[in-house]
Write a structure and sequence with these properties.
heterodimer; A: about 110 residues; mainly beta; 7-stranded mixed beta sheet; 4-stranded antiparallel beta sheet; 11 strands; globular; B: about 110 residues; 6-stranded mixed beta sheet; about 0% helix
């Protein structure tokens, strides 16, 4: 099976712009989670989607949003980018949400905001 | 609410020495526990997990972790490390009642020759 893929792998944006990141989960996986990873804050949970519905949301401002499509692919969007949004954004998929299932991570999208 | 504390942010060791990466969790219900590893410029990969049964779980590359319910810990150990074990290690907990996983802040293991 192909692993989790994320596009693009690298992105440079300017403050105030918006960005959309894409994640394709492992075939058959219906749960997708997004994380932000920075040296100072570690790995922080953004949101989780299952069957096109957001199940959980982390403590991020409304500028961060996401969605999931019927084929389980997911996108996250960040509007009005700030310098502090520079980070590695990781997507993870699992067969079902939560309990007991390990997550399979993609390689991440490294976003740099200048 | 669940939480995870990785007690050491950096662990430097020499090659072939033993290592222990410490993880404590807090939860009011039964939990599932995971250790993930992240090599440079890559995503996280599952190293091992505890769901139920034997409290000692092992990975294919020589790591092991022991679930200690009374001490709410899930420490990761390896008796003899290699240079290739240099990476960041994350402990994660998921409560048994359908919630998201919570990750610790990570421990950077650096193996020196």
């Amino acid at each position: 099976k192909a692993g989790v893929t994320q596009t693009p792998r690298y992105l440079i944006k300017t403050r105030g712009q918006q960005v959309t990141l894409s994640c394709s989960p492992i075939s058959g996986h219906r749960s997708v989670s997004w994380y932000q990873q920075t040296p100072g804050q570690g790995l922080q949970f953004l949101f989780e989607y299952f069957s096109e519905t957001q199940r959980n949301k982390g403590n991020f401002p409304g500028r961060f949003s996401g969605r999931q499509f019927s084929n389980s692919r997911s996108e996250m969007n960040v509007s009005t980018l700030e310098l502090g949004d520079s980070a590695l954004y990781l997507c993870a998929s699992s067969p079902s949400p939560g309990t007991g299932y390990e997550q399979y991570f993609g390689p991440g999208t490294r976003l740099t905001v200048t | 609410a669940q939480s995870v504390t990785q007690l050491d942010s950096q662990v430097p060791v020499f090659e072939e020495a033993p290592v222990e990466l410490r993880c404590n969790y807090s939860s009011s219900v039964s939990v599932y526990l995971f250790w993930y590893v992240q090599y440079p410029n890559q995503g996280l990969q599952l190293l091992l997990k505890y769901l139920s049964g034997s409290t000692l779980v092992e990975s294919i590359n020589g790591f092991e972790a022991e679930f200690n319910k009374s001490q709410t810990s899930f420490h990761l150990r390896k008796p003899s490390v290699h240079i290739s074990d240099t990476a960041e290690y994350f402990c994660a907990v998921s409560e048994s009642v359908g919630s998201k996983s919570t990750f610790g802040d990570g421990t950077t293991l650096t193996v020196k020759p």
